[in-house]
Amino acid sequence: MGLDITWAVDWVRRSAQVVSDHRIELITLDREIGDGDHGENMDRGFQAVLPKLDDLHAGSTPGDVLKLVATTLISTVGGAAGPLYGTAYLKAAVAAGDSVSLDGEAIAGILTAARDGIVLRGKAEPGDKTMVDAWTPAVDAATAAAADGADALGALEAAASAAWEGAAATEPLVARKGRASYLGERSAGHRDPGAESSALLLQAAADAAAASAGA
Amino acid sequence: MGLDITWAVDWVRRSAQVVSDHRIELITLDREIGDGDHGENMDRGFQAVLPKLDDLHAGSTPGDVLKLVATTLISTVGGAAGPLYGTAYLKAAVAAGDSVSLDGEAIAGILTAARDGIVLRGKAEPGDKTMVDAWTPAVDAATAAAADGADALGALEAAASAAWEGAAATEPLVARKGRASYLGERSAGHRDPGAESSALLLQAAADAAAASAGA
Amino acid sequence: MSVKKIINDPKRVVEESVAGFAAAHADLVRVETDPIHVVRADAPIAGKVGIVSGGGSGHEPLHAGFVGFGMLDAAVPGAVFTSPTPDPILAATKAVDGGAGVLHIVKNYTGDVLNFETAADLASVDGIDVRAVVTNDDVAVKDSLYTAGRRGVGGTVLVEKIAGAAAERGDSLDEVAEVAERVNANARSMGLALTPCIVPHAGEESFTLAEDEIEIGIGIHGEPGRERIKLEPADGLVDRLLAPILEDLPFESGDRVLLFVNGMGGSPLVELYIAYRRAAEVLGERGIEIARSLVGNYITSLEMQGMSITLLKLDDEMVELWDAPVQTAALRWGR
Amino acid sequence: MSVKKIINDPKRVVEESVAGFAAAHADLVRVETDPIHVVRADAPIAGKVGIVSGGGSGHEPLHAGFVGFGMLDAAVPGAVFTSPTPDPILAATKAVDGGAGVLHIVKNYTGDVLNFETAADLASVDGIDVRAVVTNDDVAVKDSLYTAGRRGVGGTVLVEKIAGAAAERGDSLDEVAEVAERVNANARSMGLALTPCIVPHAGEESFTLAEDEIEIGIGIHGEPGRERIKLEPADGLVDRLLAPILEDLPFESGDRVLLFVNGMGGSPLVELYIAYRRAAEVLGERGIEIARSLVGNYITSLEMQGMSITLLKLDDEMVELWDAPVQTAALRWGR
Ligand SMILES: Nc1ncnc2c1ncn2[C@@H]1O[C@H](COP(=O)(O)OP(=O)(O)O)[C@@H](O)[C@H]1O
Ligand SMILES: Nc1ncnc2c1ncn2[C@@H]1O[C@H](COP(=O)(O)OP(=O)(O)O)[C@@H](O)[C@H]1O
Ligand SMILES: [Mg+2]
Ligand SMILES: [Mg+2]
Ligand SMILES: [Mg+2]
Ligand SMILES: [Mg+2]
């Protein structure tokens, strides 16, 4: 079963919810190796998206939702995460195109486009201790799952669980991009806040897919 | 036996010692109801007096020593205590005149002049929670002792013990002069730092007299 | 070293800091070290009234930061939070006397008043005409027989600027003293502290406050205030400072004022402007016109977090003198 | 409310503070609130290159305090410690474009660079000629492939003043950008913190330090530095900051420099001048001439206690532009 506009809207609502629930946690992670604003920034951004969902017209597609998220995050989040997530959602929207229903392969394509957008803007490589370290394993896992015939839910579940592993795996790393890189060796031993928020968002996508499959 | 130049010099040395020993205590008292500098100010002043004692010429009198203390305190202590103590020692020097030896009555006269000097400059009345509350009972006690025939040592011992009682008695008072008055009712429950230093100085005078009597 | 400060020997704080000030502002001032006083580079100026202020250190930029064209001719910094002794005040008075007399601007604290008094007595012996203006704008203190009188706080900065401009345009000693008195008489201030400060030689906090407590009615010497309350939002704090200020003079609808929001040293500017916003709102509601403003750290208590608000009821002459050029380390415009 | 600050709603700190700033400095700036940006009162000025800077709030007076004659045409304050989004940067860029193009002065942080980049792209679509100068003067960070590159810190203030003067005298966009690049290339900075700061919405200290510890090599975002050491006397601290600065450019005997001792927001001026004194001593020993100085809180991290030192190697043009009149809330001379 493909994922449609209902899923996309549900994903955004769940994203806003988890980011709000984990606001303090993300702030704390960012305080340790950054400047303590990541949770606040993400929360401000997703809270700004919520009311705009009501403006979606009748025939809106998942791509329209992704674009709405992209433009809102760009204009409300700020910091490094704003343009990076903004570009991710923008590229994802382009990849989603006009499709009204997304299967496993489409989901893998969308995640790949999102990750590529982050890399395009931020120039981070895997292992630099950034959100890329959550997205790259997520993309790989979703792509592999889709190739194995997984549906959209399966692809998102694979992505989410790989993102969590990726986020956890940032802990021992020494940062080479973003604010944490200023700390040098002292950045090791802490989880990257952007990788954590990425895992939260991908988990929200999977949860929304599960709910939509259950419905 | 009258008190001479040896006593006067010894008094100054002992004063410098006790002020230095009680520097932190005076700072702490002043921090509670003032601005935390009284111990530092008094210590700076008496440390400045010490080297000047060597410049006293052969025929110097107790009055010369008192004048030396006065001018040095005036030019090194600053704050409220500098001019007040400075005036006290200056008036005491005038009262001591050219005498080479001071008896009980002379001591009472000197202490009275000192106290009057403080009141002249500071306009404080007994009960205002200032150094006057140590000096006034001290003057009264010394005057009474001298009237009863006490010698200089006796007069100073009476003065010192009355000064201690006076200092202790400032604790419940609400300040009406000096920095502590800004606190209003909140100044009650703390000992006045200037009353404490006054008691220390008068005790040093008595101790020097005792040492000189014992010698 | 237990005190967390950028200092060397706690006993040499003032000496070294003044030396740094002298080096950084050699175009504006020269510094004499024995006894310590800071003098305008071109002092004495023949025929101009000299203006000397001073007091304990730890309130920077007050007073040395205000030495220069159009403001003070000399500043006399005492030890931290301790009034200077008469010697440097006398030396500064002599150094700036251009034959037209010297005005002492003295904040009303027992120590400052007594030490300046002695210096003035000594200066008159030397034939210098000295007048003193004692500032006492702090409404937190009751001005009664039962206190040492109101303290000189934020209003002092305004007195120094305006009297300095009057002296610079050539006013006589009487005239300069008169306008200084007038500014003081029309200025009212009150301050609060979120945190205490630490005097270098004392090495401990000047008072202790719980996480959620603040002191209302503090002075500038790190001394506690009249009242300790729970922290409130900024707007409520501003209202608490403004209410007694407004009713004291009183300030009334139609008055033109200078609104001075002053930081105690450790509060970020962002907070001072939040306070300014509310103060402007309250004055607007009351029909009081803010004709001039000053926002920043001008009279401080070391690293204390907090602020004070000063209102000065302006007349035309004060506005003209406020706007006149000034060129000092901390206040500068018009040249 | 657990955060001890003079604020109302932590989420409205920037909005309310900017409103207060606008009210206090209505003669210098106007403030647009949707999206928030601060614009020079007389912008746009036909034929003059517009200069826009911006970044997270909490560094005041940077940048809004530098909007006015001879410096910035607009400032774009983001949330506290968070780069602004492209919208207000774009709005500010449009507001100051007088037809001669607009220079963006951007501190090198991933977020600032990306958001300004997007705004510049959007502005070019609107036909505005935009150039960006990215400041990166912080020697505490290794400028290598393994970091996000050096941060823009104290040197940014100097770039803004000097580029602002160039624009004011009528230089072209290329010329203004060139001198801005030159200042950045000749400026080196390093900072330290005695205490962390507290971001209003975070409500906790940005890092924790023991009573006797300090952070060396901090930036301006309350982030920890490269190294944590025991507190030392001021002279040693200054030497620690100066050594890497001096060897990096390098600064050599015969060089003329501007020495900028900057407070992080919570350190008393008295300490900054003690640091200045030592810095001047060290430069003197090395035969480096201090031709200009700046001492004070100009680029801060909220209430953080600490300082940074910036050295700028001057050439004649830079000196001339530094001395040119400037009239802003935080830096003013010559008018
Ligand atoms: N160059 C980059 N590429 C990818 N991700 C990055 C890059 N720089 C920063 N990030 C991500 O952004 C997160 C920080 O976001 P945030 O705290 O909102 O912004 P800022 O660092 O500007 O305060 C980091 O945890 C990291 O995951
Ligand atoms: N008007 C006064 N008359 C008498 N003593 C006073 C007066 N004002 C202050 N004092 C004394 O001075 C002491 C404070 O001295 P000190 O701390 O050195 O000066 P400051 O108050 O200027 O910091 C007080 O404890 C009090 O005893
Ligand atoms: Mg961050
Ligand atoms: Mg005291
Ligand atoms: Mg004092
Ligand atoms: Mg940030």
Describe the protein in words.
The complex is a heterotetramer, with 2 copies of chain A (215 residues) and 2 copies of chain C (335 residues). Chain A is 70% helix and 0% strand. Chain A has helices at 5-21, 23-33, 38-53, 62-76, 81-96, 104-122, 132-147, 152-169, 193-214. The longest helix of chain A is centred in the last third of the chain and has 22 residues, at 193-214. Chain C has 335 residues and is of the alpha/beta class. In chain C, the strands form 3 sheets. A 6-stranded mixed beta sheet of chain C has the order 1-2-4-3-5-6, sandwiched between helices. Chain C has a 6-stranded mixed beta sheet with strand order 9-8-7-12-10-11. A two-stranded antiparallel sheet of chain C has the order 13-14. In chain C, a hairpin with a 4-residue loop joins strand 13 (326-327) and strand 14. The interface between C and D is large, with 68 and 68 residues. One magnesium ion binds next to loops of chain A.
List the helices and strands and how they pair.
The complex is a heterotetramer, with two copies of chain A (215 residues) and two copies of chain C (335 residues).
Chain A: H1 5-21, H2 23-33, H3 38-53, H4 62-76, H5 81-96, H6 104-122, H7 132-147, H8 152-169, H9 193-214
Chain C: H1 13-24, E1 29-33, E2 36-40, E3 50-57, E4 74-80, H2 86-96, E5 102-107, H3 110-125, E6 130-135, H4 155-168, H5 173-185, E7 187-193, E8 213-216, E9 227-230, H6 234-248, E10 256-263, H7 269-285, E11 289-296, E12 306-313, H8 316-323, E13 326-327, E14 332-333
Parallel strand pairs in C: 3-4, 3-5, 5-6, 10-11
Antiparallel strand pairs in C: 1-2, 2-4, 7-8, 7-12, 8-9, 10-12, 13-14
Helix pairs in contact in C: 2-3, 4-5, 6-7
One magnesium ion (MG) sits between chains C (56, 81-82, 111) and B (35, 37, 79).
